Predict the 3D structure of the following.
Amino acid sequence: MSTEPFDHLDRELREAVDRWRQAGLPTPNVVAIAGSGLSVDLGAPLDAGPRHWGDLVPFEVDGIEGHGLTLELLRPIEDRVVLYSKGRLHAYQGYTPAEVVFPIRLAALLGAKVLLVTNAAGGLRLEQQAGSLMLIS
């Protein structure tokens, strides 16, 4: 039985972790991925950022409207580092499931334990105004 679907891009993930650590970048505790319309500035980055996801993933990436595919490292409180991604990849763009989740798997391997993902769920409830913040579980 082949394990390829389960280990697809594993070597590339390990290499990305090594590059991150060799660059001396801090370990993120939290990953925040902003979806369409919510890619706002959250504070001054820790380093010279923003970086483009294309510099970290082993395949070519192209953003779409509202998903610039940049990331910043933020420190909102002293002992927390947030990897903030402005945009994400989508399967409807032609990316494989392993490619779509590569940035999240990378962050987890780096040490992140919390993931916050926003999106434009659009039209779930008629009484909600466009741009309303909602919690979906």
